[in-house]
């Protein structure tokens, strides 16, 4: 967890993630029919916050210690682009979520077959 000081402390970004995901879970329980679209929007919000955080951490690291992780900068930019795609093309988000769940189930089942 990184904060503005030089010591470890409370991370407001992580707190925001937890609150957003908790709200998403509650909404999905009460409105299951709109869960796929809501999940796409929640993923978009989480990706947007994660992208902004990655770029912020990149900036802080380069200011504080001179370290520049271009993969962090590029990853943050990609997260922001995906967030915008999911926000403005909800169907793309729903499709992607379906594919991710399918891949997850496939990999899990193969691992269970191989590993026991």
Descriptive notes:
There is one protein chain. The chain has 116 residues and is mostly helical. The protein has one domain (12-115). It contains 4 helices and no strands. The protein has helices at residues 12-30, 35-64, 70-88, 90-115. Helix 1 runs antiparallel to helix 2, helix 2 (35-64) packs antiparallel against helix 3 (70-88) and helix 3 (70-88) crosses helix 4 (90-115). The longest helix is centred in the middle third of the chain and has 30 residues, at 35-64. The model has no long low-confidence stretch (mean pLDDT 84).
Which SSEs are present, and which pair or pack?
Layout: H1 12-30, H2 35-64, H3 70-88, H4 90-115
Helix pairs in contact: 1-2, 2-3, 2-4, 3-4
Summarize this, please?
The chain has 116 residues and is mostly helical. The protein has helices at 12-30, 35-64, 70-88, 90-115. The longest helix is centred in the middle third of the chain and has 30 residues, at 35-64.
Following the backbone from N to C, one meets helices and strands in this order, namely: HHHH
| Radius of gyration (Å) | 17 Å
- Span between N and C termini? 36 Å
According to DSSP, the number of beta strands is: 0
Shape: globular
Key words describing this protein structure:
single chain, 116 residues, mainly alpha, 4 helices
